[in-house]
Amino acid sequence: xxxxxxxxVFVLGGPGSxxxxxxxxxxxxxxxxxxxxxxxxxxxxxREVSQxxxxxxHYIRExxxxxxEITIGLLRNAMMDHPASNRFLIDxxxxxxVQAKAFEDTVCKAKKVLYFxxxxxxxxxxxxxxxxxxxxxxxxxGSIKKRFRTYINDSKPVIDExxxxxxxxxxxxxxxxxxxxxxxxxxxxxLLRTLKKQAAEEKQSAKEKQSAKEQQAAKENSDxx
Length: 225
Fold this sequence. Notes:
Blueprint: E1 7-13, H1 19-30, E2 33-36, H2 37-46, H3 53-61, H4 68-80, E3 87-91, H5 97-106, E4 112-117, H6 120-134, H7 141-164, E5 168-172, H8 177-224
């Protein structure tokens, strides 16, 4: 499977920062495949024959990070389910630097990180509100506080690391839902324009190299005669 030809954008931010909501809109507008690491893990947990179900359940309840081998395996399989797509939003991953490195070593490098910056008080309010209807085992005050701690200790350093590489697109969540998405939309639109331009330049460069190679071979044949 040609993972290295895929355009992957990691979608990061604290619990309840709007990753899923905005990702769903990007799917509609730009044709991304949206893969939520959390949703994949929860689905695997529910699968009756899963050898990891109990383990995943424990990590999710405790607000801990599931071992990266499991999460990356699920993400690889999910990407392979969409061979025709070359645009992927991977939401809620990587959760720490070990996961980030393992994904880039075994799958592909992310083009960018879309980071939703949101105050903890806002996220807490949203999560408690969502917990009334979500049915998720981790949408309760105990799990939420553990998730915040894990996010600050492990996930925030991932954003800081990618920021050093100039790969982070930051969207502030302290605006209306419409304004947050407009900012998100504009950042992704600009990224896709850049990627399209790069792909065209690479194609042209490869064409020129091939042409030069053919001319050189023709000259060598002519010299032999």
